[in-house]
């Protein structure tokens, strides 16, 4: 139950962070947004160090750095995806892709899915099709340009979660600090190389900074949940985060959610729930 609550908290924080990050990236180059979000996230983790402790063994450094590289890719691809829109379609696709790899890793490591899990996996794939198809000619259908980074973001998020799960259980927030320092360094290096392509537009600092803080909270809750529960279960519950993104997109941006998309979102919720029960 503790792992379940932590995973639900992580999904809520991820959903809010994604909405704010994607919204901030609409008015400026995505790297300018990540340049603000990543250091803000690192600041939060450094502030948590005295309270939660941290160790930096070779395993912590290696897996933490790997998670940081994946996180940098996830930040850029996800914010780019949500900036292109529509959020209420692309966010669930990214979430379902991000859930599949951790489930596979969990099974390989000895975790077992019962009948509910065997039903949940094909339902998750069906949900991707339903949510992507939309309804009618006026449906908010994502272009191929938006779908490719959506799948890439899902894969990068999955790798980040898997790498964090591999870190030593007694390392505290060490993996998060190492990972966020790495992702910040990668982001700043990429921004330096592409400085002339970033354009003059700058994002409102509050949105990406808040997104970075929420992302840090989400990572911490996921790490704690994964240390107290099965990766397959924790990952799919965390993948519920599009619910927050979709609802915010509906209430703030007035993005339409058609009947077919509602069925897809409902199917995704059922699939994730079945996987969690497994």
Main attributes?
78% helix; 278 residues; mainly alpha; globular
Helix count equals: 11
Average pLDDT across residues?
80
Instruction: Indicate the proportion of strand residues.
Output: under 5%
- The overall strand count is 0
The main β sheet shows up as: none
Broad shape: globular
Order of helices and strands: HHHHHHHHHHH
> What distance separates the N and C termini?
14 Å
> Structural class of the helices, strands and pairings?
mainly alpha
Q: Low-confidence runs (pLDDT<50, min 5 residues)?
A: 134-139
Give a short overview.
This protein is mostly helical and 278 residues long. The protein contains eleven helices and no strands.
Structural summary, described in words:
By secondary structure, the protein is mainly α. The chain has helices spanning 2-24, 30-52, 58-84, 87-108, 115-133, 144-165, 174-193, 206-228, 231-238, 242-252, 259-277. Helix 8 (206-228) packs antiparallel against helix 9 (231-238). It is globular.
What secondary-structure arrangement, pairings included, does this model have?
Layout: H1 2-24, H2 30-52, H3 58-84, H4 87-108, H5 115-133, H6 144-165, H7 174-193, H8 206-228, H9 231-238, H10 242-252, H11 259-277
């Amino acid at each position: 139950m503790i792992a379940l609550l932590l995973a639900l908290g992580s999904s809520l924080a991820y959903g809010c962070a994604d909405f704010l990050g994607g919204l901030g990236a609409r008015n400026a180059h995505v790297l300018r947004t990540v340049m603000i979000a990543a250091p803000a996230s690192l600041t939060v983790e450094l502030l948590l160090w005295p309270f939660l402790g941290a160790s930096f063994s070779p395993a912590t450094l290696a897996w933490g750095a790997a998670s940081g590289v994946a996180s940098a890719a996830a930040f850029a691809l996800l914010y780019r995806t949500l900036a292109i829109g529509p959020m209420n379609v692309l966010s669930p696709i990214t979430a379902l892709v991000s859930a599949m790899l951790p489930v596979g890793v969990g099974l390989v490591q000895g975790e077992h899915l019962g009948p509910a899990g065997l039903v949940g996996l094909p339902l998750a794939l069906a949900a991707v099709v339903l949510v992507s198809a939309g309804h009618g000619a006026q449906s908010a259908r994502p272009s191929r340009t938006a779908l490719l980074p959506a799948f890439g973001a899902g894969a990068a998020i999955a790798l980040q979660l898997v790498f964090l799960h591999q870190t030593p259980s007694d390392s505290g927030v060490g993996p998060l600090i190492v990972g966020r320092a790495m992702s910040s360094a990668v982001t700043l290096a990429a921004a330096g190389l592409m400085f002339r392509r970033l354009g003059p537009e700058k994002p409102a600092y509050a949105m990406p900074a808040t997104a970075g803080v929420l992302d840090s909270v989400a990572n911490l809750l996921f790490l704690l949940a994964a240390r107290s529960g099965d990766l397959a279960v924790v990952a799919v519950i965390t993948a519920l985060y599009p619910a927050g993104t979709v609802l915010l997109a509906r209430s703030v941006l007035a993005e339409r959610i058609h009947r077919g998309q509602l069925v897809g979102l409902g199917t995704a919720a059922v699939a994730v729930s079945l996987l969690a029960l497994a």
